[in-house]
Amino acid sequence: MKRAAIGLLAAAACAALVLVGELAARAPREGTLVETSFVSHGVRGRVHLSVYLPADYDAGTKHYPVVYFLHGLPAGSNAYRGVDYLQRALDAVRRPAILVAPQGARDGDSDPEYLDWGPGRNWETAVGVELPRFVDSHFRTIRSRRGRAIVGLSAGGYGATLLALHHLDAFAVVESWSGYFHPTDPSGTRPLDVGSAAANARATAHTFVRQLRAAFEARPTFFAFYVGAGDARFRGENLLRDRELRAARVPHVFHVYPGGHDATVWSAHATAWLRLALAHLEAAR
Questions:
Q1: pTM of the model
Q2: What count of other Cβ atoms lies within 10 Å of the Cβ of residue 276?
Q3: Residues 40, 43, 46, 47: is their CA dihedral positive or negative?
Q4: Model confidence over 57-111: pLDDT tens digits?
Q5: Is residue 241 a contact partner of residue 275, using CB atoms and an 8 Å limit?
Q6: Which terminus of the chain, N or C, has less C-beta within 10 A?
């Protein structure tokens, strides 16, 4: 009896070890977070960024697609560092990629809306042009639009949309998470005048609707956006954006999710939407 019991215990222990091994093999491997910066002519100073490298980055010579992620505004100079949930989501996708989260504001300049305002405050140039150039020159990236996605939440969703529309040769995937499509004041409730009728038109995504079908056909682009059903500030404009894109027969993906304008919505859908973005980019090679 004792021998039988010992045998059963040993078998159970072996089975437990096998199960633990299988679970460990299935668990996402964590990557490496790097903090760096570059000198920007656009903002006449350093732009800081967090770069999350895939787990196998140091083990080979592969080049990876890049997801550029823009934080919300108004914000301080360190807002770009809040990417822990994105790192976990990207690990869960199991499709190796580099995540880049750049600084989009400075202390004393907390709501630049990712636009070019003039010398020393040209955030569109810094984030949309200089940043990819720096990342491509310092990391093993797929150095073409087919290897780049630009994604953002709230004001970052607005910034991602405008930067992509202005630089469609640079990005093949665009996602807005609870964003909007025209510049707003810091409260997010009123339009922001950026200086002239022409400048206001260029800073408004609705201006480009009639051009998008042809533009997306010439440069294949995946455009997706979502909003929370309880997001009183931005739900209406997201619904309008969906209607106008459908009327113009512009391919896109749009969802309304339960919840408001908060991190619980973004974290709940981060894995699915990063997976969606990476499915439309070239894979690591």
A1: 0.90
A2: 18
A3: negative
A4: 988 899 999 999 999 999 999 999 988 999 999 999 999 999 999 999 999 999 9
A5: no
A6: N
